Amino acid sequence: MDQIKIGRFIAECRKRRQLTQMQLAEKLNITDRAVSKWERGKALPDASIMLELCRIHHITVNDLLNGEVVTMENYQKQSEKLLLEMAKQKEESDKRLLSLEIVIGIFAIIILLGFTGVAAFVPMADWLRVCLIVAGLALCLVGCAYGLKIEQTAGYYECAKCHHRYVPTFKSVLWAMHINRTRYMRCPVCHHYSWNKKVLTKE
């Protein structure tokens, strides 16, 4: 989505309705600074505000996200273009999340090794040693669980049998045997177990 184009469109609609940024902001119960950021292409309206903004300007959400009034003739074309852009943004977001998963995993291991190392080599009471090891293990498990949640939701898994792409349940990902990001799971469509590989796109 072109934020600059959307911003200009919001400004044009506001001026057409003969509203100042302050007046529009008051109608939406936000600050005029937020409206200014939209119109300069620095941010997009929150989903909770979009419908009310569209109602005030007598436009559709599709018009808003395209940065222009979409006519019936090119409605389907613009909708397809918007869907492609949203799919591309999701793919980029999933790439970043999967990179973050690696970082979280490394930090979780470092924390566990750090706490265990301190407990093993620094003189201290036995109860404190046990507490350090338990705390390190707990933090590591939390990090691993968060990383696993990212692994489940970012992108899709592709069945090796029927090639259906799907998002599995957290339980399926948790208990599946795996090699890197390829997991041995049951496909929800063909119901066969196979090594399902991680992919970023739905098709």
Polypeptide structure, described:
- The protein has three domains: 3-66, lambda repressor-like DNA-binding domains (434 Repressor (Amino-terminal Domain), Orthogonal Bundle); 89-153; 156-199, no CATH class.
- The protein has helices spanning 3-16, 21-28, 32-39, 47-57, 61-66, 75-121, 126-153, 170-175; strands at residues 156-158, 165-166, 178-179, 182-186, 193-199.
- Helix content is 63%, strand content 9%.
- The chain is built from eight helices and five strands.
- α2 (21-28) crosses α3 (32-39).
- The chain has a five-stranded antiparallel beta sheet, with no helix packed on it.
- It is an alpha+beta fold.
- The longest helix is centred in the middle third of the chain and has 47 residues, at 75-121.
Question: Which descriptors would you attach to this protein?
Answer:
203 residues, alpha+beta, 434 Repressor (Amino-terminal Domain), 5-stranded antiparallel β-sheet, 8 helices
Distance between the first and last residues' Cα: 21 Å
- Please state the overall shape, judged from the principal axes of the Cα atoms: flat
Secondary-structure element order, N to C: HHHHHHHEEHEEE
In round numbers, the mean pLDDT is 89
Roughly how many Å is the radius of gyration? 25 Å
* Lateral arrangement of strands in the main beta sheet: 2-1-5-4-3
* Strand count: 5
Oligomer: single chain
Classify the beta-strand content into a percent band.
5-15%
Number of helices, counting only DSSP H or I runs of 4 residues or more: 8
Q: Into how many domains do the coordinates divide? A: 3
- Estimate the helix proportion, in percent: 55-70%
Low-confidence stretches: none
